[in-house]
Specification:
The complex is a heterodimer of chains A (356) and B (402). Chain A contains ten helices and 16 strands. In chain A, α9 links the parallel β15 (295-300) and β16. Chain A is an alpha/beta fold. Chain A is globular. Chain A has one domain: ATPase, nucleotide binding domain (Nucleotidyltransferase, domain 5, 2-Layer Sandwich), CATH 3.30.420.40. Chain A is 35% helix and 25% strand. Chain B has 402 residues and is mostly helical. Chain B has helices spanning 3-19, 25-30, 41-58, 66-179, 185-271, 278-317, 322-343, 356-364, 389-399, and strands at residues 370-373, 381-385. Chain B is built from nine helices and two strands; from the N terminus they run ααααααααββα. Classes of the chains: A alpha/beta (356), B mainly alpha (402). Chains A and B meet through β1, β4, α1, β6 and α3 of A and α8, β1, β2 and α9 of B.
């Protein structure tokens, strides 16, 4: 392979595999998250393959030495506008080393208007995650946030950007609400009826579904990044450092250090806030379905991965009078991949997806 | 009268003017002339014309044969047609030049308006920026002063607590000493033990208070150092901002020079009417200038955002506090948004709405961008997840109405 590979984004990708690997079934799911991008695909042995890419980058000084070192160390980079941009998890490591903030292509669940380099980077990452379509017109479901109830924003631009990007890669793009993906991935035992909550980096997305159909969906503009920002503020550190502390393995049931206490405090506040917003929304919504039986609430998403998350949720939930009878509150077995798996289920079941 | 004849009359009048002398009526009277006969130029011309006609009538060929006459007539007609065509052409060219002139005038007015709007917006934003900066500096200063006062208050409280604890220890010791010999040994020992315990507690308290005082003093010292660092960073940030503002001013001056040059060219175009191809050249030049102006406008936006950024960095690098950075971030956002509004550029402000088609058009600029990357050479994190067959089966069953 060449030392300086280049990628041409001009034409739609040809429907041919990028590299040898398992033969893949048509239909892909893409979780477009503020913190992570994940793709989901199924092979002919019924394995689901999830690829993960941290949705962050940092620019560093560009020279040949750095370029060679990064490649040898297996660190992804891209040269954009004469800047060397390190992508993914290493961007967090570098941010911590240099005591800087990582740059994020997305904020609050959508393409960041503040990041001029967001579009080409996002295009590159998505291309790498999905690869070319396995057949012409392959359906790809990509997750989008629901309308937030506590923040003014418009998802048209975001949807348009990703739809165009996927179309240019040769896919038949279809958007799906992030929390609806959680319903598809986690509530099959209940005939896809219940409440799916996707806890992301930028937002928490909620979807109340009845037999696969979303009856009510909305989002709140607080997520893992909100915790990072606030922890960073009280501890006097950068958000990237706060994120690293959070992901190191904190248990909310037993915070041991000052940093962990700060994380615990903001997690509890976030959970309390989200549950109370959900309750308020349910109480004020006119179109809430009447469920014949108590339903499950299932949490997914990277922000719900922290130790003790579901205990804190249950604890907070027990203190409020919820308007709907709830059978169980649980967390997805694999919260990080839930949305991508849900999107994959939707893609595979879509009648427009070419059959194998 | 026949137009040709009229022309001749005019010529005759000129000949008469040139070949006669003027005598005043008074001089004529002196010479004894009381009455004079007046012959009008028109009459003279009539006479000449008649004389010529007579001569031609008497010699019909007039010194030239019919063929020559026809030839001359034809040449005269051709000359006339050519001259008419030239005249028409000239009029068309004049109209074209006039139109080009009007177009350039219109464009120049547009550029001037754009420039004036841009200048005003920059000026207003700069003033707002200065006001916000001043207000932030003031609020920061107040915060620092109140933090310093808080530190001093806490240290003073702790010192008082330490003094009280010391006094308590001394009192306990004195009480124990005074009891020695005055009461029975058992009672004394018991009292001594109690006093010792109180003494130890008081000493521990003193030690703890002293430690807290030391910690607070260190923190205060650290805070002072950090504030000094903040101040230096803020000054550096301000100096950077000033430099950038200067560059912005220079850019603006250059832009004004371009407009002046355009004006000069417009004037030149007006003067050199009659030379072909001016309109097209000017149009191309004007397009180039417009593009340059747009690029400069984009650079100005970058610079303004850079100015705000540099101040934000200087604050947050110096540990100026989250709220402070947030305020500057918001300030930067406001500036960028205002710049966008001022220059009419599209961007991601909160009120901005975009259709799917427009979004697609935005992405189109990256379609042919070739990026150097090693992304294909590095393996992505891959997870094998639970199969989805059972979910799919249930979903398809539900879709079929099961």
């Amino acid at each position: 392979m060449s030392d300086k590979p280049s990628i041409d984004f001009g034409a739609a990708a040809a429907p041919a595999p990028r590299s040898s690997g398992p033969r893949l079934r048509p239909g892909k799911g893409l979780d477009v998250g503020t913190a992570n991008l994940l793709s989901g695909v199924q092979d002919y042995e019924d394995n689901v393959i999830i690829k993960v890419q941290r949705n962050a980058f940092i620019d560093i000084e560009q020279n040949d030495f750095t370029r060679n070192m990064l490649t040898k160390m297996g660190v992804q980079y891209v040269i954009l506008n004469n800047k060397m941009i390190v992508i993914g998890d290493p961007a967090f490591d570098l941010a911590n080393i240099y005591n800087r903030e990582t740059r994020r292509p997305m904020s609050d669940g959508m393409i960041s208007p503040k990041e001029a380099d967001a579009l080409p980077i996002e295009k590159l990452l998505v291309d790498r995650l999905l690869g070319p379509p396995t057949c012409p017109n392959e359906v790809c479901y990509y997750s989008v946030p629901a309308d937030p109830i506590d923040f003014e924003m418009n998802v048209i631009y975001h949807k348009g950007i990703f739809s165009d990007l996927l179309r240019k890669l040769g896919y038949n793009p279809k958007d799906i609400l992030e929390a609806h993906c959680t319903v598809f991935a986690e509530l099959d035992e209940d005939d896809f009826t219940g409440i799916g909550i996707s806890c992301g980096g930028g937002m928490f997305n909620v979807c109340v579904a009845f037999k696969t159909l979303p009856a009510l969906s909305f989002s709140t503009a607080r997520g893992g990044d909100w915790i990072d920002r606030n922890v960073a503020k009280v501890l006097g550190i950068k958000s990237a450092r706060a994120c690293a502390l959070k992901e190191k393995g904190v248990d909310l049931r037993n915070p041991r250090t000052r940093e962990e206490q700060a994380i615990d405090l903001y997690y509890r506040e976030l959970i309390r806030y989200t549950l109370s917003e959900i309750k308020n929304r349910f109480e004020t919504s006119e179109n809430m379905p009447q469920f014949p039986d108590p339903i499950d609430i299932v949490f997914a998403g990277g922000t719900s991965k922290i130790g003790g998350f579901i205990d804190v949720v249950r604890d907070e939930f027990s203190r409020m009078k919820f308007p709907i009878p709830i059978k169980e509150i649980r967390r997805a077995d694999d919260p990080l991949t839930s949305c991508a798996r849900g999107a994959l289920v939707a893609a595979a079941a879509d009648p427009e997806n070419p059959m194998e | 009268m026949d137009p040709d004849l009229k022309r001749e009359v005019l010529d005759v009048r000129k000949v008469i003017e040139r070949s006669t002398s003027k005598v005043s009526l008074r001089d004529l009277e002196k010479k004894g002339f009381r009455q004079v006969k007046v012959l009008r130029a028109g009459d003279i011309n009539q006479l000449i014309f008649k004389a010529v006609q007579n001569v031609l009538a008497k010699a019909p060929r007039g010194g030239m044969d019919e063929e020559e006459r026809q030839k001359i007539l034809q040449e005269a007609k051709n000359d006339f047609s050519r001259m008419m065509a030239e005249k028409k052409d000239l009029v068309a060219k004049q109209e074209q030049i006039q139109q080009a002139h009007q177009n350039l005038q219109g464009k120049l007015t547009q550029v001037n308006q754009q420039l004036a709007a841009e200048k005003n917006a920059i000026l207003a934003e700069r003033q707002q920026f200065e006001r916000d900066k001043q207000s932030l500096m003031e609020s920061s200063l107040q915060g620092q002063q109140s933090a310093a006062a808080n530190f001093t208050g806490q240290i003073e409280d702790l010192r008082q607590s330490a003094s009280k604890a010391e006094a308590r220890a001394e009192a306990a010791e004195a009480k124990a000493l005074s009891a020695e010999g005055a009461i029975p040994k058992d009672e004394y020992d018991q009292l001594r033990r109690r006093m010792n315990t109180q003494l130890e507690d008081a000493q521990e308290d003193v030690e703890r208070y002293r430690k807290q005082i030391r910690t607070l003093e260190e923190e205060q010292e650290g805070q002072i150092k950090k504030l000094k660092g903040d101040k230096i960073n803020a000054e550096e940030g301000e100096s950077r901002a000033q430099t950038k503002i200067k560059t912005l001013d220079e850019d603006k001056t250059r832009l004004e020079e371009e407009v002046s040059r355009l004006r000069a060219e417009l004037a030149e175009a007006s003067v050199s009417s009659g030379s072909g191809g001016i309109s097209a050249d000017h149009d191309a030049e004007f397009q180039r200038l417009r593009m340059e102006m747009e690029q400069r406008s984009a650079r100005m936006q970058d610079m303004m955002a850079g100015i705000a950024n540099s101040l934000v960095e200087s604050r947050s690098d110096g540990g100026g506090g989250g709220d402070f950075s947030k305020q500057f971030e918001s300030l930067q956002k406001n500036i960028t948004s205002a710049m966008r509004k001022a220059t009419g550029a599209a961007g991601g402000n909160d009120d901005f709405e975009l259709t799917v088609e427009q979004a697609s058009a935005i992405f189109a600029q990256y379609d042919n961008v070739k990026l150097e990357t090693n992304i294909d050479n590095v393996d992505l994190k891959t997870i094998k997840a639970k199969g989805i067959n059972s979910k799919l089966a249930k979903l398809r069953n539900l879709q079929r109405g099961g």
